[in-house]
Specification:
316 residues, mainly beta, Beta-galactosidase, Chain A, domain 5, ten-stranded antiparallel β-sheet, seven-stranded antiparallel β-sheet, 3 helices
Length: 316
């Protein structure tokens, strides 16, 4: 298919869902809320995104995770990060995708806009998010991309290595209070952190609050990629790494997981924006099929870098 098809359909009770396809990859963007990307798959493949709550709802009085992909702002705060996104969004269509503009979020003082585009003949989804200050005073936020992924796969997080003769610390692992380093889901290498979602056991029945199956870990990698392998389909997220101070102690990549799903998150730097100014946050998702990644770190890195070579980020 040497074109991008854009159509509107009722998807799981959301009647204003935009389906984008180029014959290699397909996405469904829900615009009755959000914006949210609720379906991502290769041609004939299964949805790589996890749907977390019963679909189809709108205009709820409380925040809904829903699943799929969402755009947040950091630092994580109840009033700003969890500002409601349960209302209808405006959509502009183009030849290769759509631009979705959400209503302003007064609690956070921002308005979100997300452009989703495909390219004919390329297994890539290009996303450019914009977070605009709609107040009369300055705001400081970091953009935050959170795809909630289907269970059972393995995540790959690059670990940077500095000069061996450096006196200063050259890299960080960021740990949350509920993270256990001995957790079997984590495999720590010198240059690669692997997270096996299939190793995450279900929590005890009826457990409330922070559950035993939850864990989160972050990295300060500047390499601009993170990946997830599920049933021989590899999702590679590519993104720039601008200089600056990053949230959560310097995290550029964060991975949250529980028994139900894994979130493959990345963040931009904390940015101060004046009234009417905006943060621009580009990323690309690449999908590869028939992928086998060896168990050993050297073999895994060789396989991943072989594919990363074809995903060099474009200038935005």
């Amino acid at each position: 298919m040497n074109r991008v098809d854009v159509s509107v359909e009722n998807y799981l009770g959301w009647p204003n869902t935009y389906r984008l396809s180029n014959g290699l990859v397909e996405v469904r963007v829900v615009t009755d809320v959000g914006p949210r990307i609720m379906d991502l798959h290769t041609a004939g493949g299964a949805n790589l995104l996890h749907l977390h709550e019963p679909p189809g709802g709108t205009n709820e009085p409380t925040y809904k995770f829903r699943g799929g992909w969402r755009l947040w702002v950091a630092p994580e705060r109840t009033a700003t990060t969890y500002a409601l996104d349960n209302e209808h969004c405006e959509v502009q269509r183009s030849a290769d995708g759509i631009v979705v503009t959400a209503p302003p979020q007064p609690q956070a003082g921002i308005q979100k806009r997300v452009a989703i585009r495909l390219t004919p003949g390329v297994p890539r989804v290009s996303i450019e998010s914009t977070i605009r200050n709609v107040t009369d005073h300055v705001l400081t936020y970091a953009a935050w991309s959170l795809p909630m992924l289907a269970p059972g796969g393995r995540a790959f997080v690059p670990l940077d290595v500095g000069p061996p003769d450096a006196f200063e610390a050259t890299r960080k692992l960021i740990l949350w209070s509920y993270t256990r380093l001995a957790d079997p889901r984590y495999q720590f290498g010198d240059r690669l952190l692997r997270i096996d979602h299939w190793r995450v056991a279900a929590p005890p029945a009826g457990q409330s609050g922070r559950r035993d199956d939850e864990s989160k870990i972050g990295s300060d990698s500047a390499q601009g990629w993170v990946a997830y392998l599920l049933d021989r389909t590899l999702l590679v997220k590519r993104f720039p790494h601008p200089p600056g101070a990053y949230p959560d102690g310097g995290a550029t990549i964060e991975v949250y997981s529980n028994h139900d799903f894994l979130e493959l998150e990345h963040l931009g730097p904390l940015t101060t924006i004046g009234p009417g100014e905006a943060i621009t946050f580009p990323e690309e998702w690449w999908l590869f099929t028939g992928v086998a990644v060896p168990e050993d770190e050297a073999g895994a890195l060789a396989a991943l870098h072989g594919l990363l070579g074809s995903t060099e980020p474009r200038s935005h």
